[in-house]
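User: Please predict structures.

Assistant: First:
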Amino acid sequence: MTQMTSSTGGALQVAAAGDPTTIRSKRGIAARLTPWIFLAIPLALLITFTFVPVGNMIWYSFTSWNGINPTKPFVGLQNYVDIFTKPQYWQVFAVSLYYFAASFLQMALALYFATLLSFNTRFRNFFKGVLFFPYLLNGVAIGFVFLYFFQPNGTLDATLAAFGLGDQTQFWLGNPDLVNVSLAGTSVWRYTGLNFVLFLGAIQSISSEQYEAAELDGASKWQQFRYIIVPGIKRIISLSFILAIAGSLSVFEIPYIMTGGANGSATFVIETVQQAFVYRKVGLASALAVVLLLIVIVSTIIQRKIVPDEKVDL
């Protein structure tokens, strides 16, 4: 009788303690669910404010919706056919080429100054601030500043005349041959600081031992730049290239403030905004936005194929 009671008590203790297999199973389930619990709110926000609007935009691009009427007539691929067949929409691609070319000039200047100021240079902190300062300014303020800068007999004309480079008044923003060059130059002035900071941080992360070894081997500054700096910041250059493509197609505030898209200066985003909110063609504007999204995605894929990420051996 006593032995039976002892056995029963031991069984009860084991049952109270729980089956080790069951405990491990519950811990495994909890470990798998914990990351999803923490990700639930960010994923909900991402789906609500990113994927759902993108899905709606794609749907609108197949309609002729005007943004007001509750009905959305389905037109199929007609909006996309209009985009690729009507010259007025092809013009925005030509305008984007000015900003695309300017972005490469911007990257070259940023890389040059980042390389120069990454070494011991007098007043380098001052020059760092000067180069990065334009990026901190509001785009509206920059638009108004350069609006007066480019006006006839304004600052630019007076400066050129002082150096004997301009003998007549130029309509920088009124001449279709000069307006996009002027606006692209304004974008170079504003965004060089961003690329400069990216390149500077990447260059300063390169070990100084590599420069010392190169100097001992008799490498020149150009050889150090070519064989140490450029390979060392390849990923940042790749990132800047993606930003250059996306930025050249999504330019908005500076040309919109300075010209409003007049004289052939309408960019992709300006044309999209005008189609949606001026001409009430939300379906066509959505198709333009989808085309922009596809161009950026395809360009990114091509860039990743050309310059793949380096594999890190663990």
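Second:
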Amino acid sequence: MKKSLPRYIVLIFFSLFILIPIIYTIMNSFMSANEINRYYSLMNESGVKTMFHIFPDDFSFEGYYNMLLRQPDYLMKFWNSLILTGSIVIGQVIISSLGGYAFAKFEFPMKNGIFFLLIILMMMPYQVTLVSNYIILDKLHLIGSMWAVIFPGIFSPFGVFLMKQVIATIPTELLEAARLDGASELQVLFRVVIPRAKSGVVSLVILSFIDNWNMVEQPLVFLKDTRQYPLSIFLAQNYSQNMSLSFACGVLAMIPVLLLFVFFEQELIEGISFSNLK
């Protein structure tokens, strides 16, 4: 027990470090605008030092009322986020499953070189390819539509890398047996490979969802109509203009991610373990 005590202390410290901002956002979402202005006067450029205030003096649903009823355009931004992120996740699972299956179980010219290139692209920040993506999407006349955000996200190299690592753990004998029974390659993929790579698929869904749920640069560059912006744009730009609304929108943005993690925690852990990701 004494040997484990330092380890528990470190784990508790990092847990609190992660949980405090979440608790802080949730509790502040129940403050009224007047209370927030009183405690965060620095945001109004008054020169007064900001106080660290977690628990509201009086619980108020003013922020949620503004978000859901008085200013429903922020709720529409939430649905924009779901449409963009959901489309990217679905497309990425399909493309990554096909690509991962090809890299894991087939031989073709320059296979290792192409996969090495994918790894390099995966390590690059998205901003590196932002200009080239814009030029290509502009040539395709997609700038200003949601497809301009969806298409680059679908072809993310990380999904192919993850699914390749997971599918490679499936015994080749199972695939050969299915082929001997007359199954086509697509049938082998969807009836044999995908069910056995379920944890990898779930991991890809969660990681892809989190990554694209928080995107900021892509909508700002590729979309022209602010009504198409996702909720992440508001959270990144307007936190100091209406903090009561920002805290409520922050809680709304947490809900899908938390639900995914709560219901698919085990599959996420298994998928990362099978893919040998550290």
